[in-house]
Recover the amino acids of this structure.
């Protein structure tokens, strides 16, 4: 065992050395050309700030003059622009636009009653717009998404080096130890996840073990946008929300990182090769022999391993066209045994995404983004459950999914007050789905848990589908009012089941009471067709469900001053009028083999409703201290024939409070999360009599609640400068208070024929620590 551990450590260190050498070779390919103004703007964009500028205003060859502001990038950019009659105009904390520093501009801004220039900048027709990262149109949404740049992501404590875990700090998001969130009451599969404009079907490691890890370390991410309602027509196929991940971009110089911790080894780099107009991003992350990534699972993990890798190359062909090629890999294997029962599960998953995209600006008023993407997903799952005197079963599952997706979107701005957004998507998907389950149950579970003593299910399917979508929206701006009207058409053709079509209109409105005060509202319909890899093979589903249909209504107000206290309040009402059936485990969401548990229940709602109030606020105190907080009051329930039943992840009140402090050498952050206990189902035991055997039965579904959930997460880091880069030592602590938060119940084995059936209450994971170091080498021209 010791030799095995040493060999793994050697392989990890060898991988670290090889990739560091490769990154150094790439970095050395960058030439030492003079610094241009465009370089400085790209460098500013690499810090998480979106910068819009015209190549007519900032030619590629425009050299930046010597500066006295070397240590302050923003000041240096402003100084270089001022020397050329330009200026950097702030739209909000993360968005800037380059404009001429002319007297006419200043006069127009100071004239009473004149519309502020930043609104024209949002929709203005600029010559040869240069845009970085994956957002190829610089247009603020009317109902702005919750956005988190990389610095804000790293400020969220307890992310365990997983950028997607930072989403749990946003309002309206329910989550636990899983990296997979529930948005405004929808199921975890109702959320669209995109990376670099490409839709990812299920981008999580250890999907059979609560999807504990996403493939996005913070070094790979520049920004995450969270749409929790009323999202634009360019987003489709899911009905609850959108998580849009923008890859990291370092368009000048390079940024190299190496992380090592109990979770694994992570190597990442990004930069630009100056002799060719090429931006690059590459990373690889691998588990170590002592990886504790499965620690939150109530089981003894047997050597879990995971690997993810990312490569992205962006080539600026001309000043008006660029192409991007990308590859993303997820690979993991895990074996776990329940600590309190004879329950074993083994799972292997491998997902691969390859994409090619083209950004093109044929006219100063027209821009486009087109892409083609290939998806391959393989997942195998084996398990056995032997619970003495209760249940005895076996599970074999093997899924293979392939997809080809083509997408093209065009943005046309014929006037500074008018914008058209139109596009199409086409997908071809096929799958091979195999499922086998055989299980026997004790008689005392009938009929309180199961309908019969034996459960046998076999499914072997090979479905195929073709999906086509068209979408278009028009956005019109007046003095203080903006209205966006859109329509999306989705059509699915399933082999042997014909074609189905859904039309979903959407309306968004925004009124600017003042430059930093906004009132907005949205109404829209959303559809979600069942993907063929989502067939419920555990019930041998052979025909696709009708598409899920939802209606979202949102009203909000936000105050976003240039500096100081920023806040937002939203009221929402969502109703799903058509809902696909889904399965839950009545005794809790955390279980090693949910399909084999006797508390497995099929939920088939006639409709679902979700209502809520969300408040969020943030305040920065200088460059050292940031405070933020969110409050959500909500409810979500399914309409069933037996009445309205809360969903298992319904949390009536939730609060997140966060703080981060950073000095040149030290940083610390804390996240306090609290929410009302999730619903639970009562369990009842009846003792045996002379004529009636002992029985165990479920009470009314989700009519009780677990205790309130409270967690305190901490992050501490100390950095030191070395001759080669910067070295940081850091510590992540989840549930630092080690609070026992009840989560679920499990039936205990029956040791003899006269033993009364019983159960125990389990808790979410206790305190979990992850300690590691980060080495970083940066060079910006």
């Amino acid at each position: 065992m010791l030799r095995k551990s040493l060999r793994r450590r050697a392989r990890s260190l060898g991988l670290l050395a090889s990739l560091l050498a490769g990154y150094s070779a790439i970095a050395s390919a960058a030439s030492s050309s003079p610094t241009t103004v465009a370089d400085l703007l790209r460098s500013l964009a690499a810090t998480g700030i979106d910068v819009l500028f015209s190549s007519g205003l900032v030619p590629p060859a425009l050299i930046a003059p010597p500066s006295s502001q070397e240590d302050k990038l923003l000041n240096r950019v402003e100084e270089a622009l001022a020397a050329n009659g330009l200026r950097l105009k702030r739209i909000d904390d993360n968005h800037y636009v380059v404009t001429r520093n002319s007297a006419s501009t200043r006069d127009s801004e100071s004239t009473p009653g004149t519309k502020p220039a930043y609104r024209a900048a949002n929709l203005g027709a600029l010559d040869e717009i240069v845009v970085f990262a994956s957002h190829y149109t610089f247009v603020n949404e009317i109902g702005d998404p919750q956005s988190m740049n990389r610095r804000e992501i790293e400020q969220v404590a307890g992310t365990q080096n997983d950028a997607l875990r930072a989403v749990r700090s946003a309002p309206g998001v329910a989550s636990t130890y899983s990296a997979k969130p529930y948005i405004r009451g929808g199921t975890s599969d109702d959320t669209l996840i995109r990376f670099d404009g490409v839709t990812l079907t299920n981008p999580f490691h250890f999907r059979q073990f609560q999807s504990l890890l996403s493939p996005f370390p913070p070094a790979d991410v520049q920004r995450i946008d969270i749409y929790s309602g009323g999202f634009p027509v360019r987003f489709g196929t899911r009905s609850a929300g959108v998580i849009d991940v923008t890859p990291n971009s370092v368009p000048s110089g390079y940024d190299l990182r190496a992380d090592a911790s109990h979770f694994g080894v992570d190597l990442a780099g990004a930069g630009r090769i100056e002799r060719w107009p090429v931006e690059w991003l590459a990373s690889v992350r691998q588990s170590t022999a002592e990886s504790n990534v499965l620690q939150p699972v109530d089981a003894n993990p047997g050597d879990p391993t995971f690997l993810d890798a990312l490569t992205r190359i962006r080539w600026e062909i001309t000043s008006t066209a660029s192409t991007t090629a990308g590859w993303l890999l997820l690979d993991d294997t895990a074996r776990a045994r329940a600590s309190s029962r004879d329950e074993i599960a083994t799972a292997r998953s491998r997902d691969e995404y390859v994409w090619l995209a083209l950004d093109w600006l044929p006219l100063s008023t027209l821009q486009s983004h087109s892409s083609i993407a290939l998806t391959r997903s393989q997942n195998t799952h084996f398990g056995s459950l032997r619970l003495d005197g209760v249940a005895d079963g076996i599970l074999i599952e093997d899924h293979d999914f392939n997809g080809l997706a083509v997408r093209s979107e065009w943005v046309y701005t014929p006037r500074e007050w008018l914008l058209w957004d139109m596009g199409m998507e086409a997908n071809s998907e096929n799958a091979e789905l195999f499922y086998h389950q055989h299980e026997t149950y004790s008689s005392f579970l009938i009929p309180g848990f199961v309908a019969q003593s034996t459960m046998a299910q076999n499914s072997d399917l090979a479905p195929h589908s073709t999906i086509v979508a068209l979408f278009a929206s028009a956005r019109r701006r007046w003095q203080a009012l903006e209205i966006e009207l859109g329509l999306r058409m989705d059509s699915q053709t399933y082999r042997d089941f014909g074609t189905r079509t859904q039309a979903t209109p959407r309306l968004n409105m925004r009124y600017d009471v003042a430059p930093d005060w906004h009132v907005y509202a949205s109404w829209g319909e959303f559809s979600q067709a069942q993907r063929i890899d989502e067939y419920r093979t555990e019930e041998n589903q052979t025909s696709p469900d009708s598409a899920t249909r939802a209606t979202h209504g949102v009203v909000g107000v936000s105050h976003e001053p240039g500096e100081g206290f920023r806040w937002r309040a939203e009221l929402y009402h969502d109703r799903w009028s058509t809902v696909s059936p889904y399965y839950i485990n009545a005794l809790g969401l955390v279980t090693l083999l949910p399909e084999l548990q006797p508390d497995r229940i099929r939920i088939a709602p006639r409709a679902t409703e979700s209502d809520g109030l969300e408040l969020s606020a943030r305040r920065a105190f200088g460059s050292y201290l940031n405070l933020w907080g969110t409050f959500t009051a909500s409810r979500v329930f399914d309409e069933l024939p037996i009445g309205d039943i809360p969903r298992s992840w319904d949390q009536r009140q939730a609060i997140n409070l966060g703080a981060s402090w950073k000095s040149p050498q030290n940083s610390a952050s804390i996240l306090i999360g609290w929410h009302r206990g999730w619903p639970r189902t009562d369990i009842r035991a009846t003792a045996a009599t002379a004529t009636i055997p002992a029985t165990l039965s479920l009470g009314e579904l989700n009519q009780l609640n677990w205790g309130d959930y409270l967690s305190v997460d901490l992050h501490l880091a100390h950095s030191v400068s070395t001759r080669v880069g910067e070295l940081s030592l850091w510590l992540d602590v989840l549930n630092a208070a080690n609070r026992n938060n009840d989560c679920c119940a499990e039936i205990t084995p029956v040791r003899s024929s006269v033993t009364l059936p019983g159960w125990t209450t389990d808790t979410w994971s206790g305190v979990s620590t992850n300690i590691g170091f980060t080495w970083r080498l940066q060079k910006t021209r």
